[in-house]
């Protein structure tokens, strides 16, 4: 584990913003890969876990966070930064509207037993 010390609020805000942007882009691109039929969620998550040594793939992480929360974060980033690249993937919006919120609802990109 590595400890990062941040002296001020601006530094902390920059660190949090950068972290959110990286996670946002990864989750959104993974959702687009599913939407476009590039690969199934299991394959995308396996590639991320093996290729980047992540404990969870981006879609399993999105399910853990909550797809509604992911969409809300992406909307805040898009509005705050004024950049359409942060707009949530239409598949994320579709899942949220259908009540597929991830683990908390029992279904997102994956199905979770109740």
Verbal overview:
By secondary structure, the chain is mainly alpha-helical. It has one domain: N-(1-d-carboxylethyl)-l-norvaline Dehydrogenase, domain 2. The protein is built from 5 helices and no strands. The chain is globular, with a radius of gyration of 15 Å. It starts with 8 loop residues before the first helix and ends in a 17-residue tail after the last helix. The model has no long low-confidence stretch (mean pLDDT 87).
Q: What is the typical, i.e. mean, pLDDT?
A: 87
Give the terminus-to-terminus CA distance.
34 Å
**Into which percentage range does the β-strand content fall?**
under 5%
Radius of gyration: 15 Å
Helix-strand makeup class: mainly alpha
Largest sheet: none
User: What's the structural domain tally?
Assistant: 1
Q: What is the name of the CATH topology?
A: N-(1-d-carboxylethyl)-l-norvaline Dehydrogenase, domain 2
**Count, helices:** 5
Low-confidence stretches: none
Q: State the shape.
A: globular
The sequence of SSEs as H and E is HHHHH
Q: List how many beta strands DSSP finds.
A: 0
CATH class division: Mainly Alpha
| CATH architectural type | Orthogonal Bundle
Helix fraction by DSSP (H/I, runs of at least 4): 55-70%
């Amino acid at each position: 584990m590595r400890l990062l010390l941040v002296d001020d609020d601006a530094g902390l805000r920059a660190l949090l913003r950068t972290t959110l942007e990286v996670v946002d882009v990864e989750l959104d691109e993974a959702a687009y890969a599913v939407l476009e039929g590039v690969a199934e969620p299991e394959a995308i998550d396996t590639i991320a876990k093996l290729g980047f040594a992540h404990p969870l793939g981006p879609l399993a992480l999105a399910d853990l966070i909550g797809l509604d929360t992911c969409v809300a974060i992406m909307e805040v980033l898009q509005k705050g930064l004024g950049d359409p690249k942060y707009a949530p993937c239409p598949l994320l919006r579709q899942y949220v509207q259908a009540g597929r919120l991830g683990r908390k609802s029992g279904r997102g990109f994956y199905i979770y037993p109740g």
